[in-house]
Amino acid sequence: MAAERLDTETRQEQIKKAVLEIISTEGIGKLSTRNLASKIGVTEGALFRHFSSKKEIMLSILDDVKNELLADQERITYSSSLTAEQKLFDFLCRHITYLIENKGITILLFSEAAHMNEPLLKKGLREILLTQKEYISRIIKQGMNEGVWDKSLNVENVATLYMGIPISLNIEMILEPGTVKQEKFCERMIGLIKRALEKK
Question: What sign for the dihedral angle of Cα 34, 27, 39, 2?
């Protein structure tokens, strides 16, 4: 029984990976059950033994973002051993690494949510974005309290600036696939945010 469950989990991961691959390389219009089944080498009927619908697949991918990326960002935000500057670096670089490893997963989910007009998917994405904004705001406030960043700045505005970074990364990944280097992008964006935060 345990082996059967493991096999199901493995197949579900293959299906989700194939979904992201199809959307990122061929576009949303090509995400059909036929193409998906062909991509992973199973019948369409076999797909529905693991997920009951395309919506269920997308919601499972959304849960992965929460359980992997968001959980890591929460741990970084509430760490008692890191300075605000360390948290900012770890938070952003984890975000960028996750997006690159998962083919710009959030923008793909946004595109699919709009395409499907799926309320649950939109709601889940909104919750993720609001939570990330809350976390980055806490890190900014910590830096202000530590005396390293300008206290006169509007935290909401700086947090909004941060939220634009993943979108910029996703655009680069779409326009120039395979050329984005995680380390360089992270360093460039950290420099940008620090300049916005530093005391004048």
Answer: negative
